[in-house]
Predict the 3D structure of the following.
Amino acid sequence: MWWDGQNLDKPLDGPDGIRWFFRVWHGTVEGVHCQRLFFWNEPKSETGLVELRGSETLHVSRIKQWLARIARDAAHRRRFIRPLAFPLSRHW
């Protein structure tokens, strides 16, 4: 289910002025708790997904730290670049 509230979908501005958008999903996949952190820039030219499973899942405060790091650190963000289909709720 989509994790609404707690400002997890709040856009963040990177140091280069690019605005980053986020959606967080959490649920069970094949019997394992899973979190998916989706991200994209304003023109949707760069999109990606961080998938955390089982013991890798994070508390909401740590998720916010991950999202902030994705917005500000291009090298970190490149590790998770992946094409996304929009609207997310239809395809994921």
Observations:
- Residues 12-84 form one domain.
- The helical segments are 60-72, 74-78, 88-91.
